UniProtKB/TrEMBL annotation:
Family matches, as SUPFAM superfamilies: Winged helix' DNA-binding domain (SSF46785)
Protein name, as recorded: Helix-turn-helix transcriptional regulator
Pfam families per the UniProt record, alphabetical: HxlR (PF01638)
Keywords: DNA-binding, Transcription, Transcription regulation
Organism whose genome encodes this protein: Streptomyces flavofungini
Native organism taxonomy: Bacteria, Bacillati, Actinomycetota, Actinomycetes, Kitasatosporales
Amino acid sequence: MTTPGGRGADRGVRGDLFDPRCPTRQLLDRIGTKWTSMAVKALADAAPDEVRFAELRRRMPGISQKMLSVTLRSLTRDGLVSRRVEPTVPPRVFYRLTGLGLSLETALAGLRTWAEEHMAEIDRANEANDEEADEG
């Protein structure tokens, strides 16, 4: 919870997902993106080893260099990913999940499992909705 006059006084009440200032909502906004979940999965697959930036990008088809950089910066800031730079020319940059990041992967794995188990139902619902829209 935020405290009156404390550091989080200008934030919303923790746990009120309907309040855009809610810290939980803000975190969910960051970790709920497709690129975040893909980056966490790719790093988890390599754990406990590190992954170089270029290799991570190869493992995530469709992501731009800029978007991967932004995603990794956010994950690092949140303490989910650690970053190590070797001072070579050009610099070699390595990433790995922290313990906190590995705990997020556990939660995301459950969500992926749910999606895989229910994808056929979702597809049928989409098709039915599209048919209704075409008829009406």
